[in-house]
């Protein structure tokens, strides 16, 4: 029986699955089982998986059910004392499992360990264009209220979870596709403490060309998940919904500015920023909001090519060796 079960849902992941699994194989902690749930792939995903020589790798194939269902199926096969999830297009740094496991073993009351995320923007061929580190949140202990305001864990490839915590919470909710992660972290945080590893250990892949068509769908799902979250929240925390809406508007203003350069996208970004400011004027003091405001002004005032030129200058792309990624 392995100490850790790593669960990877995979659907038509032929372009990235080998690199993702390689990042698991390179872990400094090696006592793990690697469970891949082939979620009805129609491409060469299974062929690539079957070519990998590693006795820790197990492949289970099902009809397509979506990420929440695939993760739940993976849990049913897992035997480890701790469970980690990794999406088929994301990567881990080599010390991810080791440091998260160490944190949980040193904090027996904690049920979940998480790290910082680095967003890796790639082109349609998967070539990295830039690396953008997430904010360095250091929330530990009882984090339910913080999570209710904003999903600071950022993605489903982040956490390491005790089996007892996972079993006490149930599975991922298939009715929340796209926001099943936030929903699950919230349910875990009502029962268990969280502990943070203050390092960027998750590389979250974003295909820039593929995001523009997804923003509207993501927004609808986020609103549904938000309503579910506050239906479950106790009366004394209902006042936080205003702050959650501010986080929602800031997040989607950023998505529209980054992935929708057309007139409609810029207009949506402007509406979201204005809504956030109306709800909480102090948000203008936040550096993230200020940067978004500058980007919006550039796109509103300057011709598209000129605006994009200045936006590229603002980006300051990182590399994996950049010291700005260090804790």
What is the total tally of β strands?
9
Mean pLDDT: 90
Distance between the termini: 34 Å
Counting helices, strands and paired strands, the structural category is alpha/beta
SS field, number of helical segments? 13
Low-confidence stretches: none
Number of domains: 2
Radius of gyration: 20 Å
CATH homology group of the largest domain: Spore Coat Polysaccharide Biosynthesis Protein SpsA, Chain A
Biggest pleated sheet:
9 strands, mixed
CATH architecture of the largest domain: Alpha-Beta Complex
| Overall outline | globular
Assigned CATH class of the largest domain: Alpha Beta
Domain Glycosyltransferase 2-like prokaryotic type: 5-246
Pfam family, one: Glyco_tranf_2_2
Organism: Nostoc flagelliforme FACHB-838
Protein name: Glycosyltransferase
Describe the structure.
- The two termini are 34 Å apart.
- Strands 1, 2, 3, 4, 5, 6, 7, 8 and 9 form a 9-stranded mixed β-sheet that branches.
- Strand 2, helix 2 (45-50) and strand 3 form a beta-alpha-beta unit.
- The protein is globular and about 60 Å long.
- It is an alpha/beta fold and 327 residues long.
- The model has no long low-confidence stretch (mean pLDDT 90).
- The chain folds into 2 domains: 4-210, Spore Coat Polysaccharide Biosynthesis Protein SpsA, Chain A (Alpha-Beta Complex); 234-315, no CATH class.
- It has 13 helices and 9 strands.
How do you describe this structure in short?
By secondary structure, the protein is α/β, with parallel strands linked by helices. The chain has two domains: 207 residues, Spore Coat Polysaccharide Biosynthesis Protein SpsA, Chain A, CATH 3.90.550; 82 residues, no CATH class. Helix content is 44%, strand content 20%.
């Amino acid at each position: 029986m392995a100490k850790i079960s790593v669960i990877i849902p995979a659907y038509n992941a032929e372009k990235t699955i080998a690199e993702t699994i390689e990042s698991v194989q390179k872990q400094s902690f090696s006592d793990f089982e690697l469970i891949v749930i082939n979620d009805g792939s129609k491409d060469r995903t299974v062929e690539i998986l079957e070519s990998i020589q590693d006795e820790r790798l197990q492949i289970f194939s099902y009809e397509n059910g979506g990420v929440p269902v695939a993760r739940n199926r993976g849990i049913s096969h897992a035997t480890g004392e701790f469970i980690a999830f990794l999406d088929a297009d994301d990567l881990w740094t080599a010390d991810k499992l080791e440091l998260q496991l160490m944190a949980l073993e040193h904090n027996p009351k904690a049920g979940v360990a998480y790290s910082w995320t680095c967003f890796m923007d790639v082109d349609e061929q998967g070539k990295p264009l830039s690396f953008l580190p997430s904010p360095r949140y250091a929330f530990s202990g009882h984090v339910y209220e913080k999570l209710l305001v904003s999903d600071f864990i950022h993605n489903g490839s982040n956490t390491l979870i005790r089996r007892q915590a996972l079993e006490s919470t149930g599975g991922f909710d298939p009715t929340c596709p796209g926001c099943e992660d936030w929903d699950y972290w919230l349910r875990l945080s009502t029962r268990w403490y969280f502990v943070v590893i203050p390092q960027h250990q998750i590389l979250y892949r974003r295909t820039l060309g593929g995001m523009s068509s997804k923003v509207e769908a993501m927004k609808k799902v986020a609103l549904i998940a938000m309503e579910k979250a506050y239906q479950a929240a106790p009366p004394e925390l209902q006042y936080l919904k205003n702050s959650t809406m501010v986080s929602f508007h800031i997040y989607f203003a950023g998505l529209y500015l980054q992935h929708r350069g057309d007139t409609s996208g810029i207009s949506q970004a402007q509406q979201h920023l204005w809504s956030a400011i109306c709800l909480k004027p102090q948000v203008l003091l936040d550096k993230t909001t200020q940067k978004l405001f500058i980007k919006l002004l550039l796109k509103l005032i300057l011709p598209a090519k000129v605006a994009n030129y200045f936006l590229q200058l603002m980006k300051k792309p990182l590399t994996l060796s950049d010291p700005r990624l260090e804790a």
